[in-house]
Amino acid sequence: MALRESERLEAEALDAYSSIVTRVAELLIPSVASLKVMQDVPARGPGGVPRTIGRRPRGSGSAVAITPDGFAITSAHVVGKTTEGSATFSDGRELSYRVVGADPLSDLAVVRVQASDLAVATLGDADALKVGQLVVAVGNPLGFEGSVTAGVVSALGRSFATQAGRNGRIVENVIQTDAALHPGNSGGALVSSDGLVVGINTAVVGPWVGQGLGLAVPINATTRRIIGELMSDGRVRRAYLGIAGAPRPLPPKAARLVDRRRGVEVSEVVDGSPAETAGVRRGDIVVEVDGAAIEDVADLQRIMVADRIGRAVQVTVLRAAGRVELEITPRELS
To answer: Which of helix, strand or coil describes residue 243?
Structure first.
């Protein structure tokens, strides 16, 4: 019996969906490795001198190869403070790797696998994603290598907090997806239907908060810069002002004065920081840095890059006296 028109269209849609997921899986699985992270076992020798007596597994995750000669992206929390481990690929090879650099404040890391012929993934641009768009997660959940799940972009513009020592940062423009993610997926690829890596899977929320809710750090101009710095220098240098704050809307009169609707209100000024030296006060509202509008904390974070370390920047703040121009020379965030 012939299918009714609606059933025929549904079958065609399912075939198209299946074809996309299958094509993405075939393209990406060879580029995604299962990481086995190893850490030293510390001990005390004669006289209490620290020494290492062996190595043991610390955990596992995933990584995405981006160059044939071994560079791969993963999550900073996957490698932690370790320096090496092994990477297993879908062709059966288990290869050693070393950690090139990790940036806990973006939850991104780069490792170098001992190989010269890796199948590589192509990076895309998460800024072009739309809510509802099909995405495929490729990784190694719970140690099951080469696993693929599919879903949609559930939301864009999410954020989550990261911490490195006393320094905290908000990772902005995080991708939320309902593609099933589990422990071990971290560091794996979130891929668009055209086979481009648009995110690095980083977190799973649930089951006590929201089962089936996963997050991925986006691949965009900001994170490409971070990845490039990790590959070349092994670390990410950031400029530091020494303030903490939160976005707030501007009163109508202040908004007209600076032609802005929002700014970042300073809630804390660190003692001895560049901001304190320049005269920034609690309650000031930062609205502009070097001519760039500051409407939320993410705007401020994007501007505080290595190029501004040790170079005076012009900062516009609003306070009771009106508009105030300050000159601040950022230090390097340690």
So the answer is: strand
Is the pLDDT at 88 greater than 70? The verdict is yes
Does 2.40.40.20 match the CATH number of domain 122-231?
A: no
Weakest-pLDDT range from 13-22, 30-39, 290-299:
13-22
**Nearest residue to 240 (alpha-carbon basis) of 278, 205, 206:** 278
**Integer Cα distance of 302 and 239 in angstroms:** 10
Q: Which amino acid is at 297?
A: V
Task: Identify whether 251 is preceded by a cis peptide bond (ω within 30 of 0).
Answer: no
Is 107 one of the catalytic residues? yes
In this prediction, residue 168 carries a pLDDT of: 62
**One of 103, 107, 284, 299 is an active-site residue; which one?**
107
Q: Which CATH number is correct for 239-332, 3.40.50.720, 1.20.1280.260, 2.30.42.10, 1.10.10.10?
A: 2.30.42.10
Burial class (CB in 10 A: 0-12, 13-18, 19+), 60: buried
* Distance in angstroms (rounded) separating the CA atoms of residues 78 and 64: 13
Give the pLDDT band of residue 275 (cuts 50, 70, 90): very high
Catalytic option among 31, 77, 273, 284: 77
77 is catalytic: yes
Tell me what the pLDDT averaged over the chain comes to.
Answer: 86
Beta strands 322-328 and 313-319, pairing class = antiparallel
75 vs 66: CA distance, rounded Å: 14
Q: Is the pLDDT of residue 309 over 50?
A: yes
**CATH topology identical between 122-231 and 239-332:** no
Catalytic-labelled residue, pool 34, 60, 186, 192: 186
Q: Are 114 and 70 in contact (CB under 8 A)?
A: yes
Instruction: Check if the beta carbon of residue 217 is closer than 8 Å to that of residue 106.
Output: yes
What percent of the chain has a predicted confidence (pLDDT) above 70? Answer: 84
Domain boundaries, the chain: 122-231, 239-332
CA distances from 185 to 12, 131, 181, 263 (A): 31, 22, 6, 37
User: What are the residues facing 289 on neighbouring strands?
Assistant: 292, 315
pTM of the model: 0.80
